[in-house]
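Contributing new records

If you add data, match the layout below exactly. Sequence lines come first and carry their own label; structure lines follow with theirs. Keep one chain per record. Anything else will be rejected by the validation script.
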Amino acid sequence: MPEQTLHIHLVSDSTGETVHQVARACLAQFADVKTIEHVWTLVRTPAHLEALFEGLNRNPGILLMSIIDQNLRSNIEKTCRSTGVPAVSVLDPVVNMLTTVLGQAMTNLPGGQRRLDTAYFARMAAVDFAVSHDDGMNMGNLKKADMLIVGISRTSKTPTSMYLAHRGYKVANYALVPKVPFPKHYVDGLDLFVVGLTNDPKRLSQIRRTRQAAMQDNANEDYADIDQITDEVRNARRLFASNGWPVIDVTRRSVEETAAAILQYYTKWTEARS
């Protein structure tokens, strides 16, 4: 099929992250569609609606919204019906189900999931922890960590740590270096969840060569050498096995998939201790 082009209007009364993520997840199922996103955030006044409607006239397509205020929603829905623009409120199915199950009305609070509550500040503290415990920094402070990620260079330790931190977990990570023993004394005596990350040597070699080219690093010849990397992967797996740490191969995983796998192991680990 020829590639189709779709204008998609993402409308939110808050930051727009929710409706954006829903749209991306759904559009991933349609490979031959080119999307042009029109992002409308903090839509809370008639003036905002006027600008939105002008945008719909210029670039008709579809509209996905996360709007709490009923008057604003009614105006958007009415305009979309009159202009033939398909529109969906992405939160309605879940909110309606919760209303039925809980027997409670929704609070009608725009951006309610972004409010500055205890959980929000806990997430910010987790992000700060991940930054200050990246790549082996402050290993003497692991007693405050929820988990430690260990892996050789270029196994997505840092982005995975940051992703988990945004979920509220205090994560430290440590990069294994050839011929440098893992400092096990930092974890001895700690009831700490540790997970090992590994990757296919060929894939790692490609990633490292790309990084070296970007950094214009021609000095470290062994960094992308396939034999050197194979030894690194083998030694890392031996370390993980000797300590009984779960191992995740990130070769064909996105950061989100790696984080999800880590959380599965972490949940089992915490349940075993409860």
